[in-house]
Structure formats: structure tokens, C-alpha cells
Amino acid sequence: MRDDGRKNGSRRREATTVAILDAAEELFAAQGFTAVTVRAIAEHAGVSHALVHRYVGRKIDIWNAVIERNALGILQAAPDNPDLLETASLMIRDGLTRHRRYVRLVAHSGLHGLSSGWPPGIYGATERLVELAERAAASAPPTEPDENLDPRFIIACVVALFIGWGAMESWVLARTGLQDMDEGEAVAGLERVVRGILKANLPGVGDDEPEPE
Fold first, then answer.
1. What are phi and psi of 123, to 5 degrees?
2. What is the rounded distance in angstroms from the CA atom of residue 39 to the CA atom of residue 185?
3. Looking at the whole model, is its pTM more than 0.90?
4. Confidence tier at 213 by pLDDT (50, 70, 90)
5. Which residue intervals of the chain bear CATH 1.10.10.60?
6. If 178 and its partner were Cys, which of 120, 153, 173, 204 is the partner (CB 3.0–4.6 Å)?
């Protein structure tokens, strides 16, 4: 009986923690870190303020827990694919359809200095793209050193574009007269632009792709 009671208590705590993090993720993605309070998270999750502190901690602890539980999401869209272009396409599609909130959280993290001190692996998708870009550059025919950009810089530009789009898509489309663009069309367009950036700046990438008709 004691074991059953402990298991039930553990399950309740786990379910409550998930509810707290779900509520926090929704509020943080919509409002950013500064505007959200622990009390607002508690109210949204349907629990007490004290329980949030007890199960998760301070607001920064809640933020970090939300980031950590999403860290591998986009990476899992293409965990073992050796092709840089395919991997980038799959990550963009997945990030802007299933993990849009997380992309917005990453944008808030960068803008408000909340990402310092995070261990390697938190941004696993970016690390994977860097790995593939460096591998592609190393396998390309030799060229003059000054002719090519650092593969890491190219990925930095791609990631900045992706995160910025994920955080500000509606605003950007409205300001450019594209407010009626279908979301699927926008994602496909961004995917095409990113592939173009990679092919144009990384020697050997996409050379075997057929030209669009």
C-alpha cells in the first residue's frame, strides 16, 4: 500500500509539473520572460503559487526547464541525416510547424541574455548543422582561403534567419504586403531561401541537385 501511495504521489507530481511547464511555455512564448509572473503561470496551470515554487522553483528555473525539455525537439526531425540541405529543410519544417513556441523562446533568450551558462546540447539542432557544414567544407575541392566564409558563420546566418522568422513572421509578412500568404507557402519559401544560402556559400553543397524546371 505504501508503494502504491508513493507511486500515485509521484505520478501526481509529474503530471502537475508537466501542467506547470505547459502553462509557462504558452505564456513565455506569447509574452516573453519579463512580462510573465510565477503567479500567472500558477493561475494558468490551475495550481497554487507555492506549488509552482515547490515543484519547479523560481521563474528563471521554470524558464530553463521549459527550454531544456524542448532542446532536442527540432534535432529529432533529422537526427542521423548526413545531408546538410535535407537536414536544414526538415528542421525548418519541423521548427515552424511543431515547435514554433520553442523558436520564440529561443528568440527571447537571445534578446534578454537568458542563454548564458547553458551547457552544450541545449541547441543541438544548431550544433548538428555546424557539424554538417564543416564536414561539407572539408570535403570540397581546395580553394583560396579568402574565397570562402567560415562554415560556422554561414550556419549562424541561417539560424538567425530561422529564429527571426519564427518569432516575427506575422509582423514581417504584414510589413511586406504578404499578410495573406498561406503558412505552408511561407514555410516552403523560407526553406528554399535557406537552401539557396547554403548552396551559394558552401562549396560542393547541392552540386548534384537537379536544377528546378
1. -110, 60
2. 39
3. no
4. very low
5. 2-69
6. 173
